[in-house]
From TrEMBL:
One of its GO terms (biological process) is regulation of DNA-templated transcription elongation. HAMAP family: GreA_GreB. GO terms for molecular function: DNA binding; RNA polymerase binding; translation elongation factor activity. Residues 77-150 form the Transcription elongation factor GreA/GreB C-terminal domain. Belongs to the GreA/GreB family. Keywords: DNA-binding, Elongation factor, Protein biosynthesis, Transcription, Transcription regulation. Residues 1-69 form the Transcription elongation factor GreA/GreB N-terminal domain. Necessary for efficient RNA polymerase transcription elongation past template-encoded arresting sites. The arresting sites in DNA have the property of trapping a certain fraction of elongating RNA polymerases that pass through, resulting in locked ternary complexes. Cleavage of the nascent transcript by cleavage factors such as GreA or GreB allows the resumption of elongation from the new 3'terminus. GreA releases sequences of 2 to 3 nucleotides. The keyword Transcription applies. This is Transcription elongation factor GreA.
Amino acid sequence: MTRAGHTALDAELKHLKSEERPAVIRAIAEAREHGDLSENAEYHAAREKQSFIEGRIKELEGLLSLAEVIDPARLSGAIKFGATVTLVDEDTDEEKTYQIVGEAEADIESGLLNIKSPLARALIGKEEGDSVEVRTPGGERSYEVLSIRYV
């Protein structure tokens, strides 16, 4: 995972532990004070939220403990993990820029492309000027690699 992805996940983990977890514990305590728990919707909602928070905390702790942080600025050459790639769709002439990142930090709307996606797999090893054919759920797409940066 990239340094930025690691930092973002670590910040989310700290937020969950320091703010969300104590808030949901207070909400459960308040709901218990209202009496009968079997028909207490506030209590059940708070317990459900607590379950989600605890699950996410465990997931983040696992991801962060196993993460290998790679600094893309130290890389160069053909496309590999961490590369920021500018592509042009050969059919529509639309330019797009993506950074190839790990699964945990991927967010296509933010331009963070999952390394396991069909597009990222097709791009690995390509150079500037290369043409790439990608089979996507929407059909075959052709892209040309305009630039490769390691930031």
